[in-house]
Amino acid sequence: MPLLVGGFLELPLGVLAGQGRRRRLAILGGGVIFVLTLLGVASARSFTVLLCAFVAFYPASGAFVSLTQAEIMDAWPDRQAQVMARWDLAGSTGAVAGPLLLTAVLASGGGWRAGYLVLAGLAALVWLGAYVRGPAAPAAGSPDADSDSDSDGERAERRPWTGRAREIAAALRDWGTLRWLLLIEVADLLVDVFTGFLALYLVDVAHLTPAVAALAIAIRLGAALAGDAALVVILDRAGDLAVLRASAAAAALLYPGFLLVPGTVPKLVVLAALSAATAPWYPVLQARLYGSLPGRSSVAVTLSSAAGLAGGLGPLAVGLVAQGFGLSWALAGLVVVPVAVLLVPAGARSGRCQVRA
């Protein structure tokens, strides 16, 4: 329900928010609702209240987080891959910090409600920082720092939402945009979806203990964080598509190796290498999506929301295959994912700062 209903409510955000002052208000308003939804989860005393809070979390997150991402992409049009790498590093840091936060809350005698209260407090601090800092802007000396961005933003803000709706229809007819949109969801099968089935695979198929499976999840999150940190440095020295292809080639070897290698320690070592290898996928592909829609980041937000709804069928598909043929065969089918990542961008232009092409 939260995924379907909340995701559906999130769909028009990019179109309605647009750019400029209107998008700024949408970000701040979404941040307020974001905090309120966390408080609602923490204080829920019935299933209905809990469900409503989780449903509202999706559009609130879309306004607060996704529109902020779009604003940052607009501020750095010639360094979108590099900036997305930093964005993804922040997300990986949160993924590692989340379990540690919950552990600290539980160790201090609190429960899951206290954990959500802490998250609400942290989100409120982030909202305050966003409010005080103001809209994202290029650093001094950047190619866009001296551009007529204010007048561009004003013109974009005056553009009616019907015009942005027509831009979405045009983007859906553009294979250059659809390619990146599709590839983001395909790549996620070997990132978030694989992570969701990892512990179950290790216990039921590899016959490891639940403690080792929990350790494997920690190793995967830590290795992904290390990969994101390395990517920030690598993208300043190499082209984004070259990095993407190299990581896909590595994953095409490492993933079958993870499934086939015997022994606990070798499996964990290969898992760590695989998690680091797939780190460039989301930031590079997402940056390329924005780059295929120069000046139309709001369209990219809406298309990403729609693709995310469709991508929600990924775990269901894996689960259905696992139910019919076994989890080992279901995960074995994911070997095609790095091949797809390796082959699809072959016709795209490569380079360090060509994501606007």
Mean pLDDT: 86
Through-space gap between termini: 38 Å
Give the helix/strand class: mainly alpha
SSE run: HHHHHHHHHHHHHHHHH
What percent of residues are in strands? under 5%
Total strands: the figure is: 0
| CATH fold label | Growth Hormone, Chain: A
Shape descriptor reads: globular
Task: Tell me the number of helical segments per DSSP (H or I, 4 or more residues long).
Answer: 17
Low-pLDDT regions: 139-152, 349-357
Helix content: over 70%
What is the CATH level 1 assignment? Answer: Mainly Alpha
What is the makeup of the main sheet? none
**Number of separate domains:** 1
Q: What's the CATH architecture?
A: Up-down Bundle
> Superfamily at the CATH H level?
MFS general substrate transporter like domains
Rg from C-alpha positions? 21 Å
Can you describe what's shown?
This protein has one domain (2-347): Up-down Bundle (Growth Hormone, Chain: A), CATH 1.20.1250. Helices cover 79% and strands 0% of the residues. The protein is built from 17 helices and no strands. It has helices at 2-10, 13-17, 20-43, 47-75, 80-107, 112-133, 149-158, 161-172, 175-204, 210-234, 240-260, 264-277, 281-291, 297-311, 313-325, 327-332, 336-343. Helix 4 (47-75) packs across helix 14. Mean pLDDT is 86; it is low at 139-152 and 349-357.
